[in-house]
Design goal:
Elements lengths: L2 H38 L1 H12 E6 L6 E2 L5 E14 H5 L1 H15 L1 H6 L2 H30 L3 H34 L16 E8 L5 H9 L4 E10 L5 E5 L14 E5 L4 H4 L1 E3 L4 H6 L20 E4 H5 L1 H4 L4 E6 L5 E4 L7 E2 L4 H11 L25 E7 L5 E7 L10 H7 L18 H10 L9 E3 L26 E3 L1 H7 L2 H22 L28 H10 L2 H8 L10 H12 L29 H16 L7 E5 L2 E4 L6 E11 L3 E2 L13 E2 L3 E11 L5 E9 L5 H18 L8
Parallel strand pairs: 2-12
Antiparallel strand pairs: 1-10, 2-3, 3-4, 3-5, 6-7, 8-9, 10-11, 13-14, 13-23, 15-16, 17-18, 19-22, 20-21, 22-23
């Protein structure tokens, strides 16, 4: 047998095996493809197939309400209408497109194609006025519905055009990069209109029935231009209130016995926040309506949705937001399947809406307490200068925040000039989002730390010589060791009186005895440098963006010891200066913890929500009654005895009047005057703030205190007041606290005179 004949079967077998291998490979490829289509991408393809067999209609949901502690709605959805206008109408392209279509129809397609571009433009220009009048009518109706002048509408449309064009540019660039990565070149990339350039944009978000009639008639005639559609809208039913102001308790220059009332707009604005009617790319990325796998999330975002943009509305977005319903109608047999919408959950706040309104009216410039007054003795600022301020009112037994206000507010920015906005930054919630040196309001906490460490007791006497360091009388001085006070000293002094008189030298000595490490530990234990998840940012236990204030960390303390600055820093920290900051909420919380004898409850804005404390590093510690009583008595004397720093306003030599004059209550408080950075402001009044235009030598005014019924003398509420660049804590922040106490009494939280 020849070699060729012997090899023939072998070659045949090899070919057969090769064909078999190819067949198996093809089967494997098809199997993989089948698995990909049926399993991996099955849901997406199934949804696509079902969508072609069904007609889907979305049923709108509604947003949960925000309710105060007494059940009053602070924010709620109401039925109404919204007006959405096409992108072509916003850009004006609609009129040009209609004019071109009319001109082409009149001359015929063949004639149109033969004409030059110039001739075509001339024909379009002849027809354009007719369609421009339609757009003018539309925008006139929109301006009437918005109750805003035409120039404001045009500015808003300009902003919307710029926003969409910027969004399109960003999306097209990403698409171009992906195209180039996939095909190796981008010359043939063609940008397609994004969704915002093909859909309609809401230009009137809230419209009542009677307001919608004219626009509805227009929409019936020009449906491609405008939609008037049913929609729920956010309302703030207690946002505008007439608030009584008791001027009989105010300092004499603004005092009055006549009844007064302030119309307060946008009550709770800084706290509640607001919603926006435009969906951003990050919203769609966080919770898409249809994800990349084709999965449907009925609570996901679509381009026409409403989203919380700040405050509680933003922090509790996922809870407030509901899930839309859907009606599925089969194209085959007409069968209808309904999924009902699920409304958003209500959020119950610890805030009292009426108390909140009263607190905001107290901070309102029209009341006069947050503008520079003659009794402030603030010679750095002109009389009448408005000052930014913040207040927190805390329920001591529960840690619930009953009122929290900051002025100016975002809503007030609409009536402020650009310079005023730059000077007073209305978008900052100073109660929780801005930090300040505490000044002397830190002293009760320093005394508590020293007594807890057994470094002093209630009878320990320390002599005030006017300055702490024997060889230096120009640093670490007592506040009365000044030429204008005759270089006075407090002499031998004990804890209670030292607190009431706010003797710096007493607390310098406590700071020196405590040292940096123990000082930092105890201030951290009271919450300085720790974030407070109050619920403003949502239901999470901790949020990295929360403002925590600052206290010296271990590494920095070590560097101070190496450089020999540790003693001086601990001395400065004892009076609330140096590298130490906190927020008004921190201050109210620390005083409430002290009043509770060391029991720590994280402050909360939302009932049912409670953030977590760092109990591993800072375990709970009971503060003995003798420590608490000593401190509270010193604070009581500080606002009630003539020699207390928070007891009187001085108008002149021998001319005084008490700061706290609400009958039937007991007040325990501490004033603070803290060094402030230079204030960038329009000093020369030319309408601009130059690069180095500053007012220096200013101080922030603090008052933090506790108040209860005189009948039992127990502290019930903690109050923190901060007035930026106000100066003296007693003269400036004290009267604000007094009015808040009156507001608590008027709202039934405190008893009146017996």
């Amino acid at each position: 047998m020849s070699t060729t004949r012997r090899r023939a079967p072998i070659m045949f077998q090899r070919r057969l095996l090769f064909l078999l291998a190819c067949g198996l490979a093809a089967c494997a490829v098809m199997s993989i493809q089948l698995i990909r289509l049926a399993v991996i991408e099955g849901a997406s393809h199934r949804n696509e197939a079902e969508s072609r067999l069904q007609i889907r209609e979305w049923v709108p949901t509604w947003r949960g309400s925000i309710i105060d502690r007494h059940g009053r709605p602070l924010a709620q959805d109401e039925p109404g209408y919204e007006v959405a206008v096409s992108w072509d109408a916003i850009t004006g392209n609609w009129a040009e497109r209609k004019a071109m279509s009319r001109a082409r129809a009149e001359v015929g397609a063949a004639d149109w194609n033969e004409r030059s571009p110039e001739a075509r433009e001339a024909l379009i220009a002849e027809k354009l006025p007719e369609w421009s009048l339609v757009l003018e009518e539309l925008w006139s109706l929109v301006a009437q519905a918005r109750r805003s002048p035409a120039d404001q509408l045009e500015r808003d449309l300009d902003e919307e055009r710029a926003r969409v064009q910027h969004m399109a540019a960003v999306i097209w660039e990403r698409q171009r990069q992906r195209h180039e990565a996939r095909y190796g070149q981008a010359d043939d990339f063609k940008a397609m209109p994004i969704a915002e350039q093909t859909g309609k944009h809401v230009v009137v978000p809230h419209l009542r029935d009677h307001q919608a009639i004219a626009l509805q008639k227009f929409a019936e005639k020009w449906p491609e231009l405008v939609d008037v559609r049913y929609a729920r809208h956010r309302s703030y039913p207690n946002g505008t209130l007439d608030v009584p102001v008791d001027r009989s308790l105010l300092p004499r220059s603004i005092r009055s016995t006549s009844p007064d009332e302030l119309r307060m707009e946008s009550v709770g604005d800084q706290l509640l926040g607001s919603i926006r009617y435009d969906v951003w790319a990050e919203d769609l990325e966080r919770r898409p309506f249809i994800d990349e796998n084709g999965e449907l999330d009925l609570g996901g975002y679509r381009s026409s949705d409403r989203i919380g943009s700040r405050g509680i509305e933003r922090g509790w977005e996922d809870q407030l937001r509901g899930q839309r319903g859907v009606v599925l109608t089969s194209r085959q047999d007409g069968e209808v399947t309904r999924t009902l919408p699920q409304p958003g959950s209500d959020v119950l706040l610890s805030i009292d809406g009426m108390l909140q309104a009263r607190v905001e009216s107290i901070l309102d410039a029209r009341t006069g307490l947050t503008t520079v007054q003659d009794w402030h003795s603030n010679d750095k600022l002109p009389l009448g200068t408005p000052l930014a301020a913040a207040v927190v009112v805390l329920d001591i037994p529960t840690g619930e925040i009953m009122a929290m206000a900051s002025v100016p507010t975002p809503s007030q920015s609409a009536d402020m000039t650009p310079v005023e906005i730059a000077e007073r930054t209305p978008w900052v919630n100073r109660a929780v989002a801005a930090t300040y040196p505490p000044g002397s309001i830190i002293k009760p906490l320093v005394l508590a730390a020293a007594m807890m460490e057994s470094l002093v007791n209630e009878q320990t006497t320390i002599e005030c010589r006017g300055h702490h360091f024997p060889a230096r009388d120009d640093v670490a001085r007592c506040w009365i060791y000044r030429p204008r006070f005759g270089m006075a000293t407090h002499g031998p002094i004990q804890a209670r009186e030292a607190l009431a008189r706010s003797c710096n030298c007493y607390f310098y000595e406590l700071g020196s005895r405590l040292g940096l490490d123990r000082m930092a530990y105890w201030l951290s234990w009271f919450g300085i440098g720790q974030s407070i998840p109050s619920g403003m940012e949502g239901s999470v236990d901790s949020v990295e963006t929360l403002v925590s204030g600052s206290v010296l960390d271990e590494e920095f303390r070590a560097s101070l010891r190496e450089s020999g600055e540790a003693t001086f820093e601990s001395v400065m920290m004892s009076i609330g200066q140096g590298r130490l900051t906190w927020t008004p909420l921190h201050a109210a919380d620390a005083y409430a913890t002290l009043a509770r004898g060391g029991k720590r409850f994280p402050p909360t804005l939302v009932r049912g929500h409670r953030g977590r404390l760092n109990r591993a590093e800072f375990p709970d510690r009971e503060i003995p009654p003798v420590v608490v009583d000593t401190i509270l008595e010193g604070m009581r004397e500080g606002v009630s005895e003539p020699w207390g720093t928070g007891s009187r306003i001085k108008y002149g030599t021998g001319d005084y009047e008490p700061i706290f004059n609400v009958p039937g209550v007991v007040v325990m408080g501490k004033t603070g005057t803290a060094q402030a950075p230079p204030w960038a402001r329009d000093v020369d009044g030319d309408g601009t703030i130059a690069q180095r235009e500053r007012t220096t030598g200013l101080e922030h005014a603090w008052f933090v205190g506790l108040v209860g019924n005189a009948r039992d003398g127990k502290p019930r509420y903690a109050i923190a007041v901060l007035i930026e660049y106000g100066g003296s804590g007693g003269r400036v922040a004290g009267p604000v606290a007094n009015q808040i106490i009156e507001a608590l009494q008027s709202e039934g939280y405190l008893e009146g005179a017996q």
